[in-house]
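User:
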Amino acid sequence: MNHIESLSMFVTHFVDQLAFSGVEHVVISPGSRSTPLAMTFAEHSEINHWVHLDERSAAFFALGLAKQEQRPVALICTSGTAAANYYPAIVEAYYSRVPLIILTADRPHELREVGAPQAINQINMFGNYAKWYQDLAIPELENHMYARRQAARAVEEAVEGHEGPVHLNFPLREPLIPDFTLEGCWRGEVKPIRRAEAGSSVLSAEKLKSFFTHFGRKEKGLIVVGPQVNTDLAASVTRLASRMGLPILADPLSQLRAGEHDKRNIIENYDGLLKSELLQESLAPDYILRFGAMPVSKAYLKWVQRFESQVDHYIVDDHASYREPAGINPNHIWADPVSFCNQLADHMPEDNVETSWLNQWQSMNNKAKTQMLLEPGESLNEGHAVVYLSQSLPDESNFFIGNSMPIRDVDSFFMSTPKRIKLMANRGANGIDGVVSTALGTAATGRKTTLLLGDLSFFHDMNGLWMAKNKRIPLTIVVINNDGGGIFSYLPQSNHEKHFEELFGTPLGIELGPAVEMYGGIHEQVDNWDDYRTALAESYQNESLYVIEVKTNREDHVAFHKAKWQSVEEAVLSWSEKDD
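Assistant: Predicted structure:
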């Protein structure tokens, strides 16, 4: 068998096995050494291929696709520094538990470390951020079943346990053009490798009874749901809360604030309540039962640390993990969260249990909500940009949220809604890079998507807009433009005027409109609330890139938020005094 035959058999069986194992999308960045893989993916009828010219944006686009589809997405690049540009998205995928299959083309072994062009050391280059790594064999002889085994295992490793990225490095010799007409390519007479069967981890009846007995002894329990993506959890955890008479502190990325499930026990405004030192002690629970990652709220984290010694903490995760950045000593429960909630709720026959503890949280939450939603003045602000956006979001749509201040404003101002909206963000590493591309990836398969982010984050990933133009992907982007890094105004650095603007404020001083127009989008800068709501409505009628720019003032931003938190504290304390 000659080289072309060996190459063709190897890559066709590898790609075909990925398709058989459930991979439906691949993102390709053009290059020469990756030719065999790129052409084979493009030739396969069961896999959608997306071509992106910028590797960093391409990797984040693949991340968004995988988030939306909740299944592995393949990613291909040529040799050299192309693969290095994948690094930020792979770090994010690792920490946010998103399955990616990274396929990097490489020079063959004889061209490594000898000064060959476009050859760097790609061996295990993503280190611990890849769940599994293989430097594959050279495609030679009849090793197509080896290729299938590696492809099948790549999918299994990406989805087994906590999902995440895997990396396969392909040493490829020239010539690089496969021959798809050869007999024996693709599936043909070869029997594909079937997926492994995996079950959910469920607690024993004895262990479950011990938790039921422990929780039953204490009245002041809290359920906390942080960022997580399991859409089945909402119904299960709200049923459990209803039967235990417990409040649920629901992070904006918990998938609990939006949807048709019961929301009577959901507390959205806990961040504002816990910012008040005068309220913190009265809200301290006996125990906390947490699902998902640590919530976005920094006030919650500090509150947990303050009352660590008097609160029993339980963290439920479907596989072994230690996501507890508060530094407390929790009890870990490694079991399927949905099954755990259902099993525990089945021990409690009554729904809609009312307790004074639950009523206290609900009343405070309603008082806080009233203050947060008070009609704004004429000047634009970040808070009501979120309020009006949440009211405008279409049903059955995605809401992707940038890091830094946008996710915190959503935490404060996005209230519960019956609309079926999936809220997403890159909260693994919490970076501001690649956000545009990730949002575009979630929108690529046709689901209406809105992105809220700041001006610096928009600037970081303007190359990502090329995919919107090239593939005509509709996306509404709301850019909060306060000309710099707004979150630093809340930090101690803001007191050092000599260096603050240059090192932290970092004003961009650029016009966004020409950049949007360069990528074929519509740009609308709004000056008042009526124009803002009109622009939102128009964007959802438009099947293209639509960028709405909301200009605000960083100094006003800090004052606005502090005034809101103060009004929440005063309203709740006033109510508490009357209630006493």
